Write the structure tokens for this entry.
Amino acid sequence: MSVKEQARIVGAEELSRLIGISQRVVKKISLAKGEPDWLLRFRLEALGFFSKMPLPDWGADLSRLTLSRIVSYLKTTPGSVRAWDQVPKSIRTTFERLGVPEAERKFLAGVGAQFESESVYQRLNEDLVNQGVTFCSLDEAVKLYPQVVKDYLGTIVSSSDNKFAALNSALWSGGSFVYVPDDVEVELPVQAYFRINSKNFGQFERTLIIAEPRARVHYIEGCTAPTYSEQSIHAAVVEVVAKESSKIRYTTIQNWSNNVYNLVTKRALAQKGSTVEWIDGNIGSMVTMKYPCVILAGKGARADILSLAVAGQGQEQDAGAKVIHLAPNTSANIVSKSISRDGGIATYRGLVKVEKEALGSKVSVNCDALLLDNYSKANTWPDIQVKNNRTSLAHEATVGQIDSDKIFYLMSRGISEIEAISLIVNGFIDDFSKELPMEYAVELNRLIQLEMEGSVG
Amino acid sequence: MLKIENLIVEAENKKIIDGLDLVLPAGETHVLMGANGSGKTTLGLGLMGSPEYLVNGSIKIDDQDLIKASADQRALAGLFLGFQHPQEIPGLNFRHFLRTSVNNVRRFRNQPTYSVFEFSKLIKKTAVSLGIDASMVDRNLNQDCSGGEKKKNELLQLLLSEPKFAIIDECDSGLDVDAIKVMTKVLKRLKSQGVGILLITHYERLINSLDIERSYLMTQGKILKSGHGKDLAKATLEFGYVS
């Protein structure tokens, strides 16, 4: 390693760790990233909103959340690279254990990996690069496409939307930027993987996805962290813009450890004839509050929101969906599945608003909750507001335990009780898992099976 | 040999089966009849180990007593119950379920298990040989299936599970002609493989088309009459459940 490289790494390390939430911290992050003035102003304004806004008094229990001594920025490598063998070994090993490079070789068009605050790896298939597709960290996008970022950042989720959107807007680092030009179809999914490895850390990744007219893309997000006794927070903001007749699918498999507050704002703007799909799986975290939203702004736009929440011991999953119909003939299909066990709390919280102008719209909301014992909880809070009389609406909700006759039926075929329960539970979430790429569906089933083995017998 | 001695099956402090004895040798087919409420379905459920019932007495397969065994252990020991009303399991793929079940049994018997590919071939072949639409196996277990389709699913399970003794509960399940044909085929095939079958039915067509070693008439949780062959069964069909 040359002296210059060593100096660069030392230099990077000096700027590598910031604690707390303050103007000083915000300025340091922005300076270290060499950001334009407008972005620093954007951050400082957001910090102002954050300081003034109260914690949400609805939803999950946030009374034990402490932010004052949180590590708000942490950089562990000198920069993002395009080959796994250039990623520092300890970090590379983490991602290898998570199967990320393997998945990339097998079935992904591109991969981004973020460790703590910064991207450590980013690559996109050559032919997609040649077609004008961009997949990089949002930090990199600020440098490469400053005008695009400036035009869209904060336009779908404003900095004053909620306290955690404000926090993210002030402290954001990393996250993804995806841009797909007109008519380009990205066939294989691109995936970003977010990893928290430190204690008492705040990860504030920010993602912006733009699909130009008739473009198609499937973005997958995975998240994990090891378990510590101290809490960490993941407060992300995701902004998605689906232009005319485009299609964007955003899949999340969130498996944070049980010490993470996962407080995320995800919102998409769907223009004429476009489709936005949120496939949102919440298995981990201590507390999750997340309600992926689609604003159906253009005629004939469509929202599909499919979510899964698994709440075990000490977990509260407060998740759901939000759809705002602003234009005629728009449709929303919401399917929510939740499983509560060992005292876990799973809540579906949804809002569907059909405005006066959105004539001929269709809304379907289905919420199914499965309780695996008598001391866990499932709540359903569907709020549906329709302001015209030419909207068709279907709403169904079920809450129940596993039927003991079903368990006996499977057991009578030589299947053990635990295996029977796990087959039934995996069947219950099949509507969700069949929408995942096969490799993820298999992994999800395995995860559920492990969870069941932990809770039964 | 399946040997049932002094079987008592209770639910909510009420004896539904009250001291029943029955011996079913391997390779024989016996028919059990009885009026509604005589305890036929409960007998099947009790023998299979349903947690709904309190069961006493002894249920032996080749001298191994299963009275304390759970339902899955009884299945592994070679007992099969064809349900009158099979359960629907939404989202559970039939082929995946059946491979899990069959492989569990084979593993227990130290036989090689089937790979996904081998099992797909086997299940399709078996379905075709019985005249069952092979696309059934791609569906979810009994989900959105008609009564006849559920019955055929049961028969596929019965055949592929390779049980030693099967109890088939058909008291009032509305078998159609097609399902009766498939069932006859399956029961004949099982008999030729040495499987002992206890058939709970009142379908004349089914009784006529099978070789039957013994018939029973059940009333109030007990075997009231029994006889060689199918004469008793046929007489009961003709004259009703007179005692």
Summary: The longest strand of chain B covers residues 14-24.
